[in-house]
Automatic annotation (TrEMBL):
Residues annotated as catalytic: 135, 190, 203
Highest taxon, organism lineage: Eukaryota
Reactions the enzyme catalyzes: cutin + H2O = cutin monomers
GO biological process, one term: carbohydrate catabolic process
Name of the molecule in the record: cutinase
Stated family: Belongs to the cutinase family.
Xref: Pfam families: Cutinase
Source organism: Apiospora kogelbergensis
GO-annotated cellular components: extracellular region
Length: 223
């Protein structure tokens, strides 16, 4: 039996409350990096990173693994990357209830991500597009990639999913997208990777995977 909306919400609160004090303090510090709007600000670089955060996360990049992956990419690519989050203004509110929909997110969120990816392709036609999503954001990216035109999809060089909520349903990948350009991180004990919506402490650990994710994305882009 799937947990209720309120069970998930209460579980998430209890998990965050149980974090060590120093880890909570780290979350507070990272809030300053919870937004990235380089693409919307008209910037381009050799690589464009678009990220969708998890449910209830702040800003458009969240705090669990979005800012960390952006920073790791900047180090790995010597700064030749811009970062853009999919946020409320794009139609993705990162609400809890949308996790229960058939696509594990809503159409507004998917359309918002598609719009940003299309903007990256048109605004920066010579750039590599790199995508990632965490938790509900992984469902957003999974569905958005499937909705892209063939031309835009070919510009997407690498995709990373953290705590992939559609991991079981989509057999560990994105339907219609090359497996060798996709990497899924599912922490031991993270039950959302097994077709449940039960949140455990493991679901909050993906910041540690940022360097490996950045290396994979850079490699997929041939760099």
């Amino acid at each position: 039996m799937k947990p209720t909306f309120f069970t998930i919400f209460a579980t998430m609160l209890s998990v965050v409350s149980a974090l060590p004090v120093e880890q909570v303090a780290e979350l507070d510090v990272r809030q300053t990096r919870a937004n990235a709007d380089d693409l919307k600000d008209g910037k381009c670089a050799g690589n464009v990173f678009v990220f969708a955060r998890g449910s209830t996360e702040i800003g458009n990049m969240g705090t669990i693994c979005g800012p960390q992956t952006c920073s790791a990419l900047k180090l790995r690519l010597s700064g030749d990357v811009i970062c853009q989050g999919v946020g409320d203004r794009d139609g993705y509110a990162a609400d809890l209830a949308s996790n229960f929909l058939p696509k594990n997110t809503n159409s507004g969120a998917i359309n918002g991500a598609v719009k940003l990816i299309n903007q990256a392709a048109s605004q920066c036609p010579g750039s590599n597009i790199l995508l990632a999503g965490y938790s509900q954001g992984s469902a957003v990216m999974d569905n958005a990639i499937q909705a892209l035109s063939a031309n835009v999809k070919s510009q997407v060089k690498g995709v990373v999913m953290f705590g992939f909520t559609r991991n079981a349903q989509d057999n560990g990948g994105v339907p219609g997208f090359p497996a060798d350009r996709t990497k899924v991180f599912c922490a031991t004990g993270d039950l959302v990777c097994f077709n449940t919506l039960t949140i455990t402490p493991a679901h909050l650990t993906y910041g540690v995977n940022a360097p490996e994710a950045a290396s994979f994305l850079a490699g997929a882009a041939g760099q």
